[in-house]
UniProtKB/TrEMBL annotation, chain A:
<dbReference type="InterPro" id="IPR039428">
    <property type="entry name" value="NUOK/Mnh_C1-like"/>
</dbReference>
<dbReference type="InterPro" id="IPR050601">
    <property type="entry name" value="CPA3_antiporter_subunitC"/>
</dbReference>
<feature type="region of interest" description="Disordered">
    <location>
        <begin position="158"/>
        <end position="181"/>
    </location>
</feature>
<keyword id="KW-1003">Cell membrane</keyword>
<keyword id="KW-0472">Membrane</keyword>
<dbReference type="Pfam" id="PF00420">
    <property type="entry name" value="Oxidored_q2"/>
</dbReference>
<feature type="transmembrane region" description="Helical">
    <location>
        <begin position="6"/>
        <end position="23"/>
    </location>
</feature>
<keyword id="KW-0812">Transmembrane</keyword>
<comment type="similarity">
    <text>Belongs to the CPA3 antiporters (TC 2.A.63) subunit C family.</text>
</comment>
From TrEMBL, chain B:
<keyword id="KW-0812">Transmembrane</keyword>
<feature type="transmembrane region" description="Helical">
    <location>
        <begin position="105"/>
        <end position="123"/>
    </location>
</feature>
<protein>
    <submittedName>
        <fullName>Multisubunit sodium/proton antiporter MrpA subunit /multisubunit sodium/proton antiporter MrpB subunit</fullName>
    </submittedName>
</protein>
<feature type="transmembrane region" description="Helical">
    <location>
        <begin position="833"/>
        <end position="850"/>
    </location>
</feature>
<feature type="transmembrane region" description="Helical">
    <location>
        <begin position="129"/>
        <end position="146"/>
    </location>
</feature>
<dbReference type="Pfam" id="PF20501">
    <property type="entry name" value="MbhE"/>
</dbReference>
<dbReference type="InterPro" id="IPR050616">
    <property type="entry name" value="CPA3_Na-H_Antiporter_A"/>
</dbReference>
<feature type="transmembrane region" description="Helical">
    <location>
        <begin position="363"/>
        <end position="386"/>
    </location>
</feature>
<dbReference type="GO" id="GO:0015297">
    <property type="term" value="F:antiporter activity"/>
</dbReference>
Amino acid sequence: MSISLVLLIVMAVMYACGIFLLLERSMTRVLLGFLLVGNATNLLILIMGGEAGLAPIVGNGVTAEEMSDPLPQALILTAIVITFAVSAFLMALIYRSWRIEQDDDLDDDAADVAMRDGVSGIASETMDTSESDTEFGIRAEAAVSTARDLERSDELAAAEAANSVVAKPVTQKSGSGEDPR
Amino acid sequence: MIALIIAFAAVSLLLLPLTHRLGRSVFLVAALVPAAAFIYTLGQGATVLGGTVVAERYAWVPQLDLAVSVRLDPLSWALSLVVAGVGTLVLLYCARYFHHDEAHLGRFAATLLAFAGAMYGLVLADDVYLLFVFWEATSVLSYLLIGHYTERKASRGAALQALLVTTLGGLAMLVGLVMLATETGTSSLSAIVAADHEGALAITAMLLVLVGALSKSAIFPFHFWLPAAMAAPTPVSAYLHAAAMVKAGIYLIARMAPGFAEVPLWRETLVILGVFTMLLGGWTALKQTDLKLVLAHGTVSQLGFLTIVIGFGSRDTALAGLALLLAHALFKSTLFLVVGIIDHRAGTRDLRRLSGLGREAPRLAIIAALALLSMAGLPPLAGFVAKEAVFTSLLEEATAGAALGWVALIGVTLGSILTVAYSARFFWGAFFSKRDVETVRPVDENIDFLFAPAVLAVSGLVLGIFPAVMDVSAAAYSESFPPGSGESYHLALWHGLEPALAFSAATLVLGAALFMLRGRRIAQNGSLGRFSAAAGYGRVMGAIDRTAARTTGLTQRGSLPFYLGVILSMLVGTVGLAAILNRSWPTDIRLWDFPAQLAIGLVMIIASLAATRATKRFQAVVLVGVTGLGMSALFALSGAPDLALTQILVETMTLVAFVLVLRRLPARLGVQNGSGHRVVRAIIAIAVGTLMAVVAVVATGARTALPISLAWPKLAYEQGHGSNTVNVALVDLRGWDTMGELSVVIAAATGVASLIFLRSRTETAVRPTRTTTFTKIRATLESPTASGRGSWLLAGRTLDARNRSILLEVVVRLIFHSLMVLSIYLLFAGHNAPGGGFAAGLVAGLAFAARYLAGGREELAAATPLDAGKLLGAGLTLAVGTALVPLFFGVDALTSTWVSGHVWLFGELEFVTSTIFDIGVYFVVIGLALDVLRSLGSEVDRQQEEDLAVKS
């Protein structure tokens, strides 16, 4: 199959310009890049259809061989409408971002940046070495005088855990502190 | 048997609602199921022990040769009795153990019964994959059971640790099982065991399966999870950690031993790890102060013992091993239940705080003593009978010249000495009176609470006095091994003065001496030590967490351009490599299809390049729009009138939407945006552009066959009854694709409306209905302040005079209805001429856009016959209906049919049912357009007015 050089170059330029815009931080430019890439992709599909022919409408003695390939056309038609729907969604995003932040820039995600800088880490669940030696404690039928008050000690443990979290709000050293979940 | 497994699952689901009504008595209901399983198994005894295997099979996924196949042979029979019998008793015990107000009782009961079911299935399963499913089910359920006290940190940590260790082993086991099943060509466990196993592959597979078995049965180096799992409620420990789950690994070893005992490394691995575990567990048990931990470490030790004996895999050790397994299940679960009763009564399990309990609770002490004597191996209890068999059989192997026999024998003897010592320590710690320790308070002993441990303890006694009962099943199992040189051994209480008796006596004497020396020592609270396996587990988990945090920090940079850059670079790298390796280039490259392509293409290229450099928003939008219009021109000239029409309409619509949004944004585009990496971005962009060109060339060159679409025009005309092939393809030939597209459009439209109408997390703006709008318009018209200028549009006067354009109102007034008629024409003509639902919907959308632009949001609301959401829904309903209705006529979905007839004034007309589908498309597209207009238009207007009102 042969290929049209002009269409090929137009497509490559639109892809390049679209990607260049997509890599921007301004949401408006990202949307414009998206539209350019969308057009370039439609062009790619059109190129796949091969040489241009007559409209794929039966009648007037036109044969299937003379027509443009209807399959890529159906694909492109769908793609055009979806591109519109998605870009409308992106516009709504831009508007909302502007309304909330007075800004249409894509800033780095704060939580990710914190993780990257090592400010926040993962606190892992650790084994408690001071095992309890009872399930009942003072709730037992005839508890010994030294039996533990489980509910109280659990509360205490919780309070201690809370204190330790307050004392070192962010700790990179994993393995300490209660899991925030 | 399958029915019983299902009963376990079904009843456990029922327990949850029942708990609200029955409280802790729900355990009595739960106990019925394992009791039924126990009775059933007992009833099959004569058949199974007589040499007949009872099997059931239900094809599960026949294509993959997966089956729910269960098999009851002597080994499964014995294990089923343990699982069902101990399960029944533990459930009965639970009915007394928990308080009525215990939290999450229903969940606990359901999980415990489900666990019993999984365990029952595990010992019956004959298909290795089914075995694995049950195996993992026990892991997951044990996680829930160990973690029952969700509010206790130790409980959660222990549950997770047990889960991680056993599932890690389980995964290794799965790999091993798959290897074995592939190698032998069957997934039947019995067939795999019966097959020949030779070569490195078989050994690797076997070792992998053993990793699973050993981790489940808490054998070194996986032993550490078991003592930690003592954070579970004590009935759970009695069942899972004495009788059932930890026996799963032992069961698998016993199951495989007949076929694998002679495979290299089997015996070496099991005996050496077993001996080490037995000694380690016994020694640690001797140092514990928590009675439950004495038992836990003792269990680790006993599991090592079982691994040695069962893993040894000769005929007589197999017999001894199964007897030992039964004896251990009885005495160890008894002891756990006893500990539970002590804790329930005294509120502690610490032997340093218990004193005088033997005098206050004599019945409990007797029960415990029976179990401890069995554990220590004293006559006339089951433990003694089993241990005698162990000594005799191992001695025979050792004297026959097997070096491992000596290792096993010496290990077992030393381990038994430790067992005697920690048994004594348990009894001393729990029941003796101690100086300087306060005596426990007297309470009446509850006979019903003692029932379960009493039955288990007495069973140990009965089996000891009548060992023939054990012997029958153990001997039946041992027959699966090749007969030894001498006469086969049989269990008996009295074998005469044999060497084994001397071993037993020696262990007792030395054990008693060890207890006197070390057994009453109170060690400092057993620190685990830096090099213990548990500490190793902690370090591994910590390292994993840290690595995860670092990897996340390294890869999740939080920057969208960075992510995109990485993705695109990968694309260029991988696809580029594939393209370079390509050998199929197109035969020829032509310059253009027609000269106009060059002119249009030049305009598009210039517009694209300019768009990247534009500094004003509107400028950039228009430049991008130019490329869209260029596309439209290309389509029109390339024989794609539908595309040209749709593209030009979409361009217009996009421009309208853009203008609506851009009016709220500053005109200038930010200048600093991403400027730091301009060169990098340009390089990536150029690389991707070039790559796509290469891909296009390669793909075109790779085409050899004629396109499938050559048949489409004929298909469209004859089957779809339409001349416009593209349209028929959309609504008929490839209707499913369009259906998918409609869903995307609806999702996007809903997303647009949600983003704009959402004010806070909970509140959404009220969308004006048509009636309220009309009322409002009428009020404006009738108000005396209304401007004197005539109105061409319904809501014209609602607008501020400064915002009105009479020219626009007149034009819109004149063209709106024409546009609507045009859109309906396009809709129906689309089947045979350019047009169709998409184009028609866009034309209608533009007509509404014109109304909005001229008359404002009141005008739009008044002009809209239906809410946008309803239109979207109606559209999708029509499309789905068109797809589904043919099914009722017995043909494939989306099959179209047609009617033709003579209509007055119109002449001969033809109606194809796929047109209904197109009407659905039409509605959806109008819905999308309306959603865009009312969100980005009307609602943004309103918010702007609101903002202005706030400012002033």
